[in-house]
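When time allows, look over one protein, given below as sequence and C-alpha cells. The question is which stretches look regular and which look disordered:
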Amino acid sequence: MQIRYWFLLVLLGAIWGSSFMFIKIATPEFGPITLVGLRLLLAGSLFLPFLLMPKYLKQIRGNKSKILFLSLFNTSIPFTLFSFASLTSNSNMLAILNSSAALFTMVVAYFWISEPVSKKQVFGLMLGFLGIIILVNPFNAQTTLLASMACLLAASCYGTANVFIQKFATEVNKLVLIGWSLIVGGLIFLPYTILSFPAEMPSREAILSLLWLGGVGTGLAFIGYIRLIEKIGAVRTSTVAYFLPVFGIIWGNIFLNEQVTYIVVIGCLMVLTGIFVANTSKPST
C-alpha cells in the first residue's frame, strides 16, 4: 500500500478519534439530539454539491430504502447514543467501545449472511468481548453502565450497517449512499433541532466543536473514507479501527485531562488484539 494511503488512514483515525472529545465538549451545551441534528445537516451540506450532479441524482431512484436504513443505523441512531453516553462517560471510553463495531460486524455477518467463522476468529471475538467486559465494570469510574451499554448498542448499529452494505449495496455508489443518509438524518432531526435549540448561545468551545464534528469529523472524514475504499478496498480501510481508540485516548488525555488507567489500557489492548486476530484469520469453508 502506498505511503499516501497510509497517511490518509492514520489521519482518518486521528480525526475520528478526536470526534469523541468534541462530542464530550459540545453535548452538554447543545443537548444530545440537537447536536446530532446540526452535525448531520452540516456534514450533509458538504456532500450536497456532488449529490446534485445529474449522474448522482439519478442513482437515488431504487436506493431510497437503502439510504433510509443507513441514515438510521450508520449515523442517526449511533450518533445520538454516543452523544447521550458522553454525558456520563469519558471520551476515551467512547472511542474504545466504538472500535467494537469491528467485532459486532463479524457477529452480525455470521447470523445475517451466513459468513463462516473460523475457530481462530471465535477466539478473537471472545478476546475482544472480554476486553469490553473489563472496561464495562463497576470499578471503572470513567464510565457508567448505562453509558457503556449505549456505546455498545451504537457499535452494533455500525456493525449492522456494514453488513447491510455488504449484502445489499456493494454495487451502489458509496458517495450517494453516505451523502444522502447524512442529509436524510439531518432532516429527520430538523423539527426537534429547531424547537430545542439552546435558549442561551453555546460557548465558543462548543460551537467550534460542533463545526469540527460536522465539517471535519463527519463531512470531510467520510469523503476521505469513501476515497480510501475506492483506492485500497474496504478490508484495508477497516484497519482504521486500530488507530481510532489510540487517538481517542491520546486526545482525551491531552485536552480533557482524562486519566489513562490500567483498566483503560488493558481493556483497549484486549479489544484491539481481538479485532486483529478476528480479522486476520481466514474462515474454513
